[in-house]
Amino acid sequence: QSALTQPASVSGSPGQSITISCTGTISDIGTYNYLCWYQHHPGKAPKLIIYGVSNRPSGVSNRFSGSKSGNTASLTISGLQAEDEADYYCMSYRRSSTLVFGGGTRLTVV
Amino acid sequence: EVLVVESGGGLVQPGGSLRLSCAASGFFSSDYSMNWVRRAPGKGLEWLSYLGNDGRTIYYADSVKGRFATSRDSAKNSMYLQMNSLRDDDTAVYYCARDGGRAYEMDVWGQGTTVTVSS
């Protein structure tokens, strides 16, 4: 099961906005809106930040937003803060009843 | 407080077995679908298995199908991952996560338990 494709790393300065892409296929992102994003600080529990493509769980900052076009989903973080520095993963439902993560993107706030 | 706590990790030789546990608190795990996910050193998150809230619907990633088995004990409010025929590349931090019930999202995660497969 091949992973969804994400850039290995992105960086931005405090206050800036960045976007992380997540590319799949017609078997996952292109067909289903079961697309989530997770933030993971190594050594801690991963945290759900977006579900259903663009919905934020209660308590998640509105600086995080999600979207999808065709086979590609995107996570945008606006007003970057030092605490946003972490690994970010997309995840989608895939045909044949499996879930698949992206390879992960390391966000550096410089 | 809604929590899941993993346990049972440790050092095991290649070919060996290990059973991980995931204890839920603050909610009934039998009311929710649950997942196992791992993160190997230097790698990203990898979904391993999904256990439906009906207790019978179970999906596995190809990488563990036939070697790992997920089960639940409602009386103990716990889920388990029986891992057999372990390989070096099974070395990872293993997480259990609750399915939020809307879009296969995992809304509650544990801190993980570390499994090391080495001779």
Question: Can you give keywords for this protein?
Answer:
heterodimer; A: 110 residues; mainly beta; 6-stranded mixed β-sheet; 3-stranded antiparallel β-sheet; 45% strand; B: 119 residues; 7-stranded mixed β-sheet; 4-stranded antiparallel β-sheet; 11 strands; globular
Helix/strand order of chain A, N-terminal first: EEEEEEEEE
Main sheet characteristics of chain B: 7 strands, mixed
| Total DSSP helices of chain B | 0
Shape descriptor of chain B:
globular
End-to-end gap of chain A = 34 Å
Query: Residue-averaged pLDDT of chain B, rounded?
Result: 96
Q: Supply the helix-strand structural class of chain A.
A: mainly beta
Q: What is the helix tally of chain A?
A: 0
How far apart the termini of chain B lie comes to: 40 Å
Largest interface pair: A-B, 29 and 25 residues
User: In oligomeric terms, what are we looking at?
Assistant: heterodimer
How does this structure look, described?
The complex is a heterodimer of chains A (110) and B (119). In chain A, 0% of the residues lie in helices and 45% in strands. With 110 residues, chain A is mainly beta. Chain A is globular. The mean pLDDT of chain A is 96. Chain A contains no helices and nine strands. In chain A, the strands form two sheets. In chain A, strands 1, 3, 4, 7, 8 and 9 form a six-stranded mixed β-sheet that branches. In chain A, strands 2-6-5 form a three-stranded antiparallel β-sheet, with no helix packed on it. Chain B has strands at 3-7, 10-12, 18-25, 34-39, 45-51, 58-60, 68-73, 78-83, 92-99, 106-109, 113-117. With 119 residues, chain B is mainly β. In chain B, the strands form two sheets. In chain B, strands 2, 4, 5, 6, 9, 10 and 11 form a seven-stranded mixed β-sheet that branches. Helices cover 0% and strands 51% of the residues of chain B. Chains A and B meet through strand 3, strand 7 and strand 8 of A and strand 4, strand 5 and strand 10 of B.
